[in-house]
Amino acid sequence: MQISRLFRRAVATVIVTAGLAYPACAAVCPKGIGGCTSPGRCFLFVDADGNSLCDYTSRTATSGTVSSPATTPAQASGSSGSTAAPATDTATTAARETAAGSMSGSATLAIPIFELALFLVLTGILYAVIRYRLPEVQGRGKLPVFALSAFFALGISLAVTCLLVRDTVSGTLFALVYMVAGSVLVGYLWYSRVMTRRLVLLAALQSTFCGFVFVAPIMPQEIGGLVNAATGASAITPGIVAICAVIGLALVIGRTFCGSICPVGSIQELAYALPVKKYVIRNRRLAETVRLVVFVAAVIAALYLVDLMEYTGLYDLFALTVSALAIVALGIVVLSVFVYRSVCRLLCPFGVLFSLAAQFGRFRLHRTDACISCRKCERACPAATAGKDDPKRECYLCGRCTEVCPKDSALVYGR
Questions:
Q1: Taking the C-alpha atoms of 233, 234, 235 and 238 in order, what is their torsion angle to the nearest 10 degrees?
Q2: Could you give the angle at the alpha carbon of 211 between the alpha carbons of 35 and 260, nearest 5°?
Q3: I need a labelling partner for 385 at 20 to 30 A (CA). Which of 50, 79, 286, 295 fits?
Q4: How many CB atoms lie under 10 A from the CB of residue 331?
């Protein structure tokens, strides 16, 4: 099957199925945002009782629980003229609560078991198909084929499980597993020389779909949570830990998260793949300066509990919420059709952190002695970072350079 035909079908699949991801949240943000797409996940408030509805409990609160509703004066005084409510059978109530807790615990345990079982089944099916049907893995050994199968099975199984239990478990938890495990798997796929341009597009397609399902683009709007956790203004959440983990991974495996896992980056990668005239930002220093200014502004705003990146509209877009901010986000995606990763290179505050980590990354794409200096990779690189002496901190591992390289071993991912 030709890649253009496969790409068209895949995009149509995302458009049709993304509608399943519309959130059923009934919370209304005190900041005036109706139909909150991330209850308990913004850096201002937490979902203290874990019921997927924001309780507007400040993250600076020392207690993670919500107090029971206060007893009304009439109930407290037991004033005359009121009819006393019949006493509740304490033993019956306790039994019911115990049974409910047991059922809830069983359901909670069943979710990861189901996800793991689905992941293993899908990995086995994909392994059987990929090993004999995909040219990219021919002669690469069993472990790379297993890693490739596991990567796609991971995204599919997490997305399916999230759709089935989204009223019980926040999609953020699935997103955190995907972002950490997926980043490691993609790094290994590049190391084992399995990753190609076609697989990069398929990975971007899967990550974009997962972004709609999880309603958790993660980047760049979690910068407020990271800043406030660093200053002690809010608690350290699993999301903050996972973000720090993938930034740390960039020190070893480069920007695999930005390249193939982040939904914001992935949707831009798909947009830029459309066959129209492109405008390449050759002035890498100017782009990095603009992003650094945005980073500083976002950090300062976060100190005053203002989410500057909220105005990109990315959460509204991935929640399929019809709003003015969603239109802004759509405009950014349209811009990415012509300018490569405009958010990643100009607006994403985390891009500063990832580029610093990738600058000292242990594994990256580099030229070998087999290079014949044809400069085809430099002309193909949309980030203008494929030059022999160019820093690779802005390399998003898009696979264009390795695709056009006439020498099989002239460009390799390694130390």
A1: -130
A2: 155
A3: 295
A4: 12
Q: What is the pTM of this model?
A: 0.74
Q: DSSP per residue over 191-216, as a string?
A: HTT---HHHHHHHHHHHHHHHHHHT-
DSSP state for residue 49 in the 8-state scheme:
T
Residue 295 near residue 352, CB atoms below 8 Å = yes
CA dist., res. 202 & res. 125, Å (int): 17
What six digits make up the tokens of 263? 């939904």
What are 368-411's pLDDT values in tens digits? 888 888 999 999 999 988 888 888 888 999 999 999 998 888 88
CB 369 within 8 A of CB 337: no
* Rg of the chain (C-alpha set): 24
Asked if pLDDT for residue 8 goes beyond 80, the answer is no
Place of tokens 């995907």: 178
- Given a cut of 50, is residue 208 above it in pLDDT? yes
- In 3D space, the residue among 65, 352, 37 whose CA is nearest the CA of residue 175 turns out to be 37
Burial class (CB in 10 A: 0-12, 13-18, 19+), 97: exposed
**Per-position b or e across 263-295, b if 16+ CB within 10 A of its CB:** bbbbbbbbbbbeeeeeeebeebeebbeebeebb
